[in-house]
Amino acid sequence: MILVLVETDLAGTVAEVSREALTFGRSLAEAGGDVPLDAVVVGEPAPDVVEQLGAFGVRDVHALTGAAFDGYAGAAWAAGVLHVRAGTGAVVVMAAGTPRGNEVMAHTAARADVPMAANVLSFSGLAPFTVTRQVVGGSALEEMRLTQRPVVFTVAGHAVDARPAGQPGTANVVLERPEIAAADLVARVVSTEDPEPDLSGSLRSAKVVVGAGRGAGSADGFADLLELTELLGASLGVSRVVTSLGWRPHHEQVGQTGSRISPDLYVPCGISGAIQHWAGCSSAKTILAINTDAEAPMVTRATYAVIGDLHEVVPAINAEIKRRRAHGAGA
Amino acid sequence: MSTLVCVKRVVDSSGQVVLTEDGQAVDGRYAGFTMSVHEECAVEIAVRTGDATVMTLGDTDAVEQLRAALAVGCTAATHVVADQQAFGPADVAREIAAVVRDQGHDLVLLGNDASDTGDFQVGIRLAYELGWPVVNGVTEVSVDDGVVTARGAGPGGVETYRLPLPAVVTVLEGGVEPRYPTVPGRMRAKKVAIDEREPTSQPQGPGRVRLLLRPPVPSSVQVLGKGAEAAPAVVDLFEQLGVISR
Amino acid sequence: MATVPATAKVVVIGAGIVGNSLVHHLARLGWRDIVQIDKGPLPNPGGSTGHASNFIFPVDHSREITDLTLDSMRQYKEMGVFTESGGFELARTEARMEELRRRMSSARAWGIEAQLVDPEFVKDKVPFIETDQFIGAFWTPGVGVVDSLRAGTIMRERALETGALTVVPNVEVVGLDVDDGRIRRVRTSRGDIEAEHVVIACGVWSPKIGDMAGISIPLTPAVHQMVSVGPCPQLAEREGEISFPIIRDMDTFCYERQHGADMEVGSYAHRAILHEPEDIPSLEQATLSPTEMPFTPDDFDPQLEQAYELMPDLLGAEGAQMRYAINGLLSLTCDGSPILGESLVNGLWTAAAVWIKEGPGVGRAVAEWMVNGRSEIDLSHSDIARFHPHQMRREHTRLRTTESFIKTYGIVHPGEQYESDRGRRLAPMHAAQRRLGAVFFETGGWERPHWYESNAGLVVEYGAAVMPREHEWDARWWSPIINAEHLRMREAAGIVDLSAFEVFDIVGPGALETVQTVCVAQCDVPVGKVVYTPVLDPAGCLRSDLTVMRLGGEHFRVVTGAAHGPVDRKWFGDHVPADGATTLMNRTDDVVTIGLWGPRARDILASLTSEDVSDGGFGFLTCREIQVKGVPVLASRISYVGELGWELYVTVDDAAAVWDALLDAGTTYGAVPVGIGVYGTTGRIEKGYRAFGFELDGERTIVEAGMQRPKVKAADFVGKAAYLHQRESAPARVLCTMAVDDHTSAAGTKRYMLGGEPVLTRSGAPLTDDRGAHPYVTSAGPAPSLGKHLLMAYLPPDEAVVGNELAVSYMEELYPVTVVSTDATPAFDAANERIR
Q1: What was the ipTM of the complex prediction?
Q2: Domains in chain C, ordered, with CATH?
Q3: Whether the predicted model's global pTM rises above the 0.95 cut
Q4: Are the Cβ atoms of A270 and C323 closer than 8 angstroms?
């Protein structure tokens, strides 16, 4: 039996990453000879959620209920998961590779005294159970063996496309009310507030971001980029090398170690697209890369690209925008 | 109150990743070594809380990361000298726990996850080893009168934890700006005697078979043009996307 | 994806300071179809230029490097990217103060404003310095910083504006095609370029690119550590990049250079950290840039501590943090000089191992060399052709740079010998020489006895005539035995090991044409004649001086010094007709030369041969094969020490036997083995013989050197037109020999100049020739037979008068000198009677 911890989003539907995890879990269930796929949710699920889980092939939905689950406590959630596992005899316990998913699975594995694999992309064998997972911020992969039971892991985002089961079923809701020790509630969220407006918020929430990398050439190489930023009403984001070299301040950095942005349009100029940068900008809806190297990762991953030196291309774009505006104003 | 902050020597992975020939580790000969950014923030938080000891488990070269933490304000350092490749997350947690029990810390800070192995679990396993509570993935930590207040981003907003010491807290970057070392700080760091010790038990290992590099993603990019001549097509795109008014 | 042009007159590989400067000057000199490529982006492709500290201290002991630096500073200033800051070189020790005094000599010789100052003077300009850390300083007000990236862009753009240049960044060289000894094609990641000329200006990557064409560019990437500390309030309150003088803390091998609100502390004190060009990361693999390697803090800690002691208030200021620290890669060579010029592959040039301070000057000089066949600034110490085979090995470069890295700011004696990678080339009689207590100096990899401890008894015998030296610096790398050997040679005879001579034969139908074209002197002489000749460049400046023997109708042997030998060999080789019928064969490793000179030389040789070696039977400047104790020997009657005698050319197998025979036979006549100390200095300087690399170089003419002969040969030769023109006009300066009148310093110690010192009026005022140059001592050495210390220098014509009383400045004290010769007339045996 395979047990998947499912997270629901604020709108009360099954989170996309959990759908991916369910899809992954189902393929594992099929590979194991059509073993059942169960879900664990926290709180009593809305009918929509149960329906969605059914569509993804879930047999039973185990709902953890009780006051212990009112405020988030990783240890309590893990205790709940293991309670379900004890009742169902699950040999695989898994979740999406979200902060919550990784945390609860880590608790689960620690409590069960078994290993845990984070951010798994695929499995390549059942005996021994071998997974491939993301390491080094996604730049590399690790083949890892999980020889103990239960197998505990999380599924990396985008590891699989979320796909409902071929034959949608109807999930049964099983209300669970595990005993939670007081010790498991010591580290518990006591309050949740709306996020404060943060200083780099303009970058994180910008609809358009102009990016600049090593191709800017020097600290003096940003004039055209700043003009484009202004013309587009955008924010400037830079790669880590730019801040490391002291060309621009750190709060403008986009990437795994900077801000993660999700604009409608991202225009990286002279950024080759190391994975660390990609981690910070991959949520952009549209990417227009300007780069001299057509084979640069940023170009190959972009939606659109212009091949050329940013110091030639950007001034031309600026001129074109201004020309059209002048034309428009005159008309 | 006594704080222990745990750091790990990792390859700086901001450039293209290169693997060692045996595929068991990331090769640091080009990029050099550092500690994870989350850990830099944990160190920053640790030195703000007062007297902080830094520890690491790693080979002899890992002393460089201990000195780096000492240079920004940690006052003592413990080095469990061992081949970190042979240690899985549970093994590392056990070794940290041994140090904590031996040295008697109240608060242990770690990074949320190491930038190389990305296991997401050492801090949590450590908490179970110690029988302490653990807060995971927070960006701000303060200690007042034996009570830890920790805050971090959750799915529904900024979440606050409040709990008594002792506790384990794992830190995510973003809440504090790690300081750079000062010249006097670096010189002080050089003079601190490092407590070297051996691992207390045989490691079970990380379950790693090997590391691989990611295959390239097939491209579906649409090239708008080359050089300055592409400008009209670019501005057309801007208009089409509605990011500039027509 | 942009492609590269299919053809080019010249492809310049590299867009650092050197490549950019080269394309600018090539375009300025009229070349077209110039293509510049770099594997990185512009304007900073990721090489050493991108992380350079960009400051320039103009004074160097080398004239060549100083001239390149001064020319570069002129160019940087013209481009508006130079900011003058002034600079101090601090002395923490008396030994360093003495070195700074020596530096003053160089400053005066090269005409650069400089001054020795006390710590308070420094404190006045650099208020955050601790004056108790040092005892004095060398102040150069003209020191400054440049924006080398901006300069590169300006120069590239100037070339682009002429329409002569195509620049393609982000393109990698994957191969160089060589055919029939000539470069044909550059293969790149974006297509092939057929090219007449190719220049490798790739800095630390140059060896890798050179390997693609089978040439050695012997430099090694080495780490220079630098940290940036800031913001420092003392710096932040002043506007601009730099407003305080740069400090070079010479005894800790550190510098402190303001960069805006930050202080950059750089070091040359750490262990030599060398890399291989193949191990430099790509742009993608690098954390910062390929040449900004990960900082290794342990190596830097001791320097940081010293810097902190010097500037505690600044470096320990509240808020000042180490925000940037790198192991920056730069290029080092086995002898510290750049690697410039055409390689052994025709049309394939190099311009590598160049610092920011020399970049634009090197660009101009190499461009001139390519376009005009010569450069205004003599580059002979930087010529890539200078390397002997053993020096082309990477291992040699690694060993030598490991040894010399610490000398970057070190006190290096002009006679100082390397310790590493010695013993590469040993004469067949090396073991015998060792038994005689030979003290070996190295040239071209050869171990040459500089003097023999076995002759120590002669020092006692000659007493004060050996001119003993009281001061340790003057006596370092020197021995009075040299002078004793000299005196014995003049009295009886000396036997000299000259195995290091570069010897090559030119054989074939074009042999005569080749030597006639290259040499100034008439070489169309009867078989058996020996010719001493200058060699000129196309502008009539000196390229070499050497001897040529005609061994047959179509067979000439060229003999030249080891230091310059490979360059001469390439120059002759370049003039051998391309039809293949005439060949140049290097005989250096299979022919050993032994010199025998002195009044008893004839007696000694006669005792070992049945041949007629009388003046009538074996005239001066003739050669022929004779049997010496049954061994065939090519004997050549010539002298560089002003004595009767021969150079004896023997095969390697026979050399040790002939050496032993000569020593054995010589004993009867009082002959001793004498070292290069005599051959290279005392013997020649008494005779006023000029030496290439000292008196003679690419900025001097035959007329200036006083070496013109009454007639010029009818046959054409390189530089002839210019030479004829020079003969018609008065020289701008005249090579003179001077004698030191009084050696006594203010402290009462007798001091002996070693070369490089400025020549001034008796009262210490500078002298300037028509070209704005100031006279300096090209060679200095004792003339034991005259009891004098002689100096050679090019003086302004007005001053070139026998008996003229001048002064030489040595360690910042004036010593009176008098001109004893204004032409080639020897100070000793003016009529050359002893040679007969």
Answers
A1: 0.92
A2: 7-333 (3.30.9.10), 424-500+590-695 (3.30.1360.120), 502-587+699-729 (3.30.70.1400), 731-836 (2.40.30.110)
A3: no
A4: no
